[in-house]
Amino acid sequence: MQNVIAAIFEIESEGYQALNVLSKSPVTESATILQMALIKKEGQGVTLCDSFDSGVHTQDDTLIGGLVGGLLGIMGGPIGMLLMGSYGALAGSLLDAEDAIEDASLMEAVTEKLQDGTTAIVALADESDESDIDDRLSGFKVEILRFDAAVISAQVEEAQKMQREMERQTRERMRATKKEEFHKDLKEKRLKISAEFNAFKEKFKNA
User: Fold this and answer.
1) Using one digit for the tens of pLDDT, what is the confidence trace for 84-102?
2) Domain boundaries of the chain, sorted by first residue
3) Which residues contact 21 (CB under 8 A, 6 or more apart)?
């Protein structure tokens, strides 16, 4: 079974320790870990602290790629902000909040359970026996959640489409606002110049 695993740690430092434990043996008889990202909740966003990648989806200038990289991109973008409660950052968007993504179960679960300053590992793994990774993390205070990787992949693709549309609409609105402000500024400048001419003409008449 290909799973996206979210391991949420009560103690921040244990996330780093767990990443080290798992990255030492990414391939065992019953589990293969393709990608891992250690993230930390900071305010209304998440920060990538460390990562492990098989290299299958990454290049020299890429820390984490593939499904996990795409998921982190969504979590760190406007949809992730929405799910973390920063709806104000999306105020005025033509996209309804509830329609941003059909089922954001993983992102919602991680962002809801992560407290400020805590860490989580998000990993893509092929598991024939889930107890393998569970046993390796058993020494930590951790909550482990699993999601079907194919479902998460479809959700990420849908969220990416939504995110691009939100960005396009934001750019259009910014351009429209700048255009409106420009014309308003021109009108004010014309009034100021006209006032200078009128003042001079009045002064000339009364001379």
Assistant:
1) 554 333 334 434 444 443 4
2) 2-202
3) 136, 137
Closest CA to 163 of 171, 2, 182, 204: 171
Give residue for tokens 């930590």.
Answer: 140
- On whether the CB atoms of residues 35 and 54 are closer than 8 A, the answer is yes
d(CA 134, CA 139): 10
- Token pair, residue 170, equals 């934001």
pTM: 0.65
Read off the pLDDT of residues 40-68 as tens digits, 9 standing for 90 and up: 888 777 888 998 887 765 444 444 567 88
**Structure confidence by residue, pLDDT tens digits, 107-131:** 667 767 777 888 999 999 999 999 9
